[in-house]
Specification:
Keywords: Aminoacyl-tRNA synthetase, ATP-binding, Cytoplasm, Ligase, Magnesium, Metal-binding, Nucleotide-binding, Protein biosynthesis. It catalyses: tRNA(Phe) + L-phenylalanine + ATP = L-phenylalanyl-tRNA(Phe) + AMP + diphosphate + H(+). Its cofactor is Mg(2+). Pfam families: Phe_tRNA-synt_N, tRNA-synt_2d. Helix content is 42%, strand content 19%. Strand 7 and strand 8 form a beta hairpin. It contains 13 helices and ten strands. The protein folds into two domains: 81 residues, no CATH class; 228 residues, Bira Bifunctional Protein, Domain 2 (BirA Bifunctional Protein, domain 2). The radius of gyration is 37 Å and the shape is elongated. The chain has 339 residues and is an alpha+beta fold. Bound molecules: phenylalanine. Phenylalanine binds next to strand 8, strand 9 and strand 10.
């Protein structure tokens, strides 16, 4: 073999090898090329093995060129392997290595808290309905006895989507929608998202969730309300929890009351959570206002009813000692995975 022929052969095989490597589309193709160009039976290996039979004057130059070709092919293989995203190739194909567990999610704490609350009311004979997040002024305010210019509108600063179209500020409009299409008796709960123009802080968020309660029938009294709320409080916060009403004002109920539970942490003796009072406010409630019944076509002389509304975030924060409402919406997995 002449020097020229051997060097030509080396140049040829290096060029075709490098081109093929550059085009290899996966790890398996690369491995096949490694065998073909650098393996024991490869052309290059043949040349290297034949070196010893070459005359001394050829040995040097052919040997040097062969080594350069080998290095070029090796580094091209390595580079291509990296650009295909492979490691050393072994980890992709070794079936004996332990698998990588895919991350599996679970219910959001707000979902599980809602379900817990809804389950209590299901057990008490309530059924569930939902209403739209985008409401009109009539359902969100007017029919709930909150006329235009009424100062109570400021109690819940409102996001307007258009004139007279709002993002609902509470779930109470679902009371109206439900009573308009169903005659009494009604015993229902309405879960959903509500919106208020608030500056977010540890206890305020411009989006949160409520669960509304509505029971209308002949002869419903505030005693029935207290009974149901006591059941609810004990199932959610513990058997020894007590309930009390504090008079309060909501335009769509009369009388209206805020409902406190006795502090489930200190059992009433006073602690940080109940601000030393022994009581924790958990919801608003009252007897459905006669004007609300008139708006939906019910006769306030023949039916009575109670309504209540609670914040789901607040219940979850109390149950789990969560200090900041914004944690529910940040979707930081370090928070979410704890529940
Ligand atoms: N809708 C009231 C609120 O969002 C809560 C409420 C519901 C009060 C039903 C009384 C009766 O604050």
């Amino acid at each position: 073999m002449s020097t020229e022929t051997a060097l030509d052969q080396l140049k040829q095989l290096t060029e075709t090898g490098l081109a093929a490597i550059a085009e290899a589309s996966d790890a398996a193709a690369l491995e096949a090329l490694r065998v073909q160009y650098l393996g024991r039976k490869s052309e290059l290996n043949g040349i290297l093995r034949g070196l010893k039979d070459l005359p001394p004057e050829l040995k040097g130059v052919v040997g040097k060129e062969s080594n350069l070709a080998k290095k070029a092919l090796e580094s091209a293989l390595k580079e291509r392997q990296e650009s295909l995203g492979g490691g050393d190739g072994a980890s992709e194909t070794d079936p004996t290595l332990p698998g990588v567990r895919p991350p599996v999610g679970h219910e959001h704490l707000l979902t599980s808290t809602s379900e817990l609350i809804l389950d209590v009311f299901r057990g008490l004979g309530f059924s569930i309905a939902r209403g739209p997040d985008v409401e009109d002024d009539y359902h969100n305010f007017e029919a709930l006895n909150i006329p235009k210019d009424h100062p109570a509108r400021d109690m819940q600063d409102t996001f307007f989507a258009a004139e007279d179209i709002v993002l609902r500020t509470h779930t109470s409009p679902v009371q109206i929608r439900t009573m308009k299409k169903t005659p009494p008796p009604i015993r229902m709960v309405f879960p959903g998202r509500v919106y208020r123009r608030e500056t977010p802080d540890a206890t305020h968020s411009s989006e949160f969730h409520q669960i509304e309660l509505l029971y209308v029938d002949h002869g419903v009294t505030m005693r029935d309300l207290k009974g149901v709320l006591t059941q609810f409080a004990q199932q959610v916060f513990g058997d020894d929890v007590d309930v009390r009403f504090r008079p309060s004002y909501f335009p769509f109920v009369e009388p209206g009351a805020e409902v406190d539970i006795s502090c489930f942490l200190c059992k009433g003796s006073g602690c940080r959570v109940c601000k030393q009072s022994g009581w924790i406010e958990i919801l608003g409630s009252g007897m459905v206002h006669p004007n609300v019944f008139r708006h939906v076509g019910y006769d306030p002389e023949t039916v009575t009813g109670y309504a209540a509304g609670m914040g789901v975030e607040r219940i979850a924060m109390l149950r789990h000692g969560i200090p900041d409402i914004r944690l529910f919406f940040e979707n930081d997995l370090r928070f979410l995975f704890q529940f």
